[in-house]
Amino acid sequence: MELYTKTAHELHKMLVDKDVTSVEITESFIDRINEVEPKVDAFIATTFETALETASKADEKIQKGEEISALEGLPMALKDNMSTKGVATTSASKMLENYVPPYDATVVKILKENNIPILGKTNMDEFAMGSSTETSYFKKTKNPYDLQRIPGGSSGGSAASVSANEAVFALGSDTGGSIRQPASCCGVVGLKPTYGTVSRFGLFAFASSLDQIGPFAKDVTDAANIFNLISGHDSFDSTSINMEYPDYTSSLKADVKGLKIGVPQEFLGDGINVEVKNAILKACDNYKALGAEVETFSLPLTDYFIPIYYVICCAEASSNLARYDGVKYGYRADKFSDLTDLYKKTRSQGFGAEVKRRIMLGTYVLSSGYYDAYYKKAQQMRTIIRNNFADAFKKYDLILTPTAPTTAFKMGEKIDDPVQMYLADICTVVVNIAGLPGMSMPCGVDSEGLPIGMQLIGNSFAEPTIFRAGFAFEQAGFSKIPLPTFKNGGAN
Amino acid sequence: MEINIEYIANLARLDNPSTTEEANKLRKDMTEIIGMVDKMSEVDTTGVEPTNHAAPMQNVFRKDELKPSFARDEMLANAPESVAGCYSVPSAVEDA
Predict the structure, then answer these.
(1) pLDDT (mean) for B10-31
(2) Does B11 contact A386 at a Cβ distance shorter than 8 Å?
(3) pLDDT grade for A1, boundaries at 50, 70 and 90
């Protein structure tokens, strides 16, 4: 078996047993990237040289007999909206094509401290705005299960890189489903942690009250190890939660007896593809077979999740993206008549269509006369939704839903219809609105062989419950799906 | 409901769409999206407190002490244009 096919916990054991070196593992992934990247296009840039240097450092420690951490020496891929000192970080935008950050994001600092080789920066929707990675200024990433289909988005490059075995694991960011939906499309595990548990310092802000960094992994054990690594308090992020962070691997027990799982009937109705629905119903049966108590319930206001989400995220984005003005860093237009014209020309030329649409929408809902009807209204609805979830979690330990209403759709299918594209996030946005943790993991494939993801939603800080339920499902073999086939290549 | 694209674009510091076709597409998209979010008006939220943040927010205080910051040249390295250690922009105030 090639090294690149293994999970992080398998490779960690091999490193500790001195069966293999980190340099050998990293080289295996570099070869794999060189082999499949022409088909997948998961990366905007690769950083093989520094990855190998980092791998050597990990090897030195092992040779000296020093203890290594769970992910030390295991090569990963990083979404291109997290700052890497001295390495261009673009958010897949023309605006930041040549921007080289002078500092590392806190998560990157953690990766470096743990000698984790960074193989490269992964493709994404521009400024993380999209559900298909098609709005990237640079390239379109393909789904490893079918190269004519999207990998999901916005963290499509990170998801595809793990799915195609181009990295042991990856980090992405999730504002309305940008980790979970691509994880679902690409058949990997993706976790959007509780708001405030992973530092956002150095993550390019999209919608600050919703954004959260999280892992893509090959299995639940790896996801728990990655979350152990990146979670924790950071004084550089004022929303970072200062608490005792547990060892999340201690929750990896394959036992869900008596666990109460609620399934919102609204996410099994119209608008959910029938094959997806059947896979979720089967997952429910599987959980029952494992001893969990599973029942459907009504989660109110589901029709309003997407409207609330788009008002909040666009409003926050219009404010956050005001910083891109052609003065301090990033793109600047060539020709302009005065300072205001410099701003306008720079922003109009530097941003893509979807980013401009969301800035316009956010500006509109915050503008005089509309604030109460849209922004304040959405924030009030947010309160009601949080209360509804609080009620649901009095009855249930976990909520189970499809991650996305369909499997991966074809490239170009929704790019000209923003409302249809937004509905791809119907099952995921509410988790961000309420600040909850949610994890997507595979639970089957459709008749075309495309992965179907299920989403486990927990109460705030209930990642241990999510890991426990995910681990039990996985150990019973219910998440096992075929490997990607890279089919339908050459047609684009 | 008619969305004034020109007015919003100016607030957002974006140029007006350069062609009528582009302007029409943007107006159509925005009208559809606003139509979708208008659905919120169906729910009575009288007296409901707004939630700004998913996690309870509190002021975070720290000691006011000197810490190393970035070197000026390092920060200016990313500037599109700089002069004499400063960011350079077109003049914003007219000569007296």
Answers:
(1) 90
(2) no
(3) confident
Q: What confidence tens digit (pLDDT) does each residue in A137-159 have?
A: 999 999 999 999 999 999 999 99
CB A37 within 8 A of CB A43: yes
Provide the chain B residues 24-63 that lie in CB contact (below 8 A) with chain A: 26, 29-30, 32-34, 36-43, 45, 48-55, 57, 60, 62
DSSP-H helix ranges across A149-248: 156-163, 180-186, 220-230
Per-residue HEC secondary structure of A225-291 comes to: HHHHHHECCCCCCCCCCCCCCCCHHHHCCCCCCCCEEEEEHHHHCCCCCHHHHHHHHHHHHHHHHCC
Q: CATH fold of A3-261+395-475, please?
A: Amidase signature (AS) enzymes (3.90.1300)
Q: What is the pLDDT of residue B96?
A: 63
> For the residues A438-463, what does the mean pLDDT come to?
98
* 3-state DSSP assignment of residue A296: strand
Q: Which residue in A188, A130, A129 sits closest to A158, CA to CA?
A: A188
Chain B residues in contact with A352 by the CB 8 A cut-off are: none
Give chain B positions within 8 Å (CB) of A380.
45, 48-51
CA gap A324, A318 in Å, rounded? 11
Is there a contact between A327 and B89 (Cβ–Cβ < 8 Å)?
Answer: yes
- Give the pair of three-digit tokens for residue A14: 């091999």
pLDDT for res A287: 98
A435 at the B interface (CB within 8 A)?
yes
Name the E strands within A332-450. 398-402, 438-445
* Cross-strand bridge partners of residue A71: none
Domain boundaries defined on chain B:
5-41
Q: Which helix (H) or strand (E) holds A305?
A: helix A305-320
The CA distance from B43 to A382, in Å, is 12
Sheet holding A260-264, edge to edge: A43-46, A118-122, A76-79, A169-174, A212-217, A189-192, A438-445, A451-458, A398-402, A260-264, A293-297
Peptide bond into A155 cis (omega under 30): no
Which residues of chain B neighbour A359 with C-beta distances below 8 Å? 12, 14
Q: Does B6 touch chain A (CB under 8 A)?
A: no
Question: Rounded CA gap, A316 and A312, in Å?
Answer: 6
What does the domain layout of chain A look like in residue ranges? 3-261+395-475, 303-372
Number of neighbours of residue A412 by Cβ within 10 angstroms: 13
Count of CB atoms situated within 10 Å of the CB of A295? 13
Question: Which of A:445-474 have CB within 8 Å of B?
Answer: 460
- Note the pLDDT tens digit of each residue in B55-73: 777 777 888 999 888 999 9
CA distances from A383 to A259, A269, A293, A314, A376 (A): 27, 25, 29, 18, 11
ipTM of the predicted structure? 0.94
Residues A91, A136, A154, A240: which is the catalytic one?
A: A154
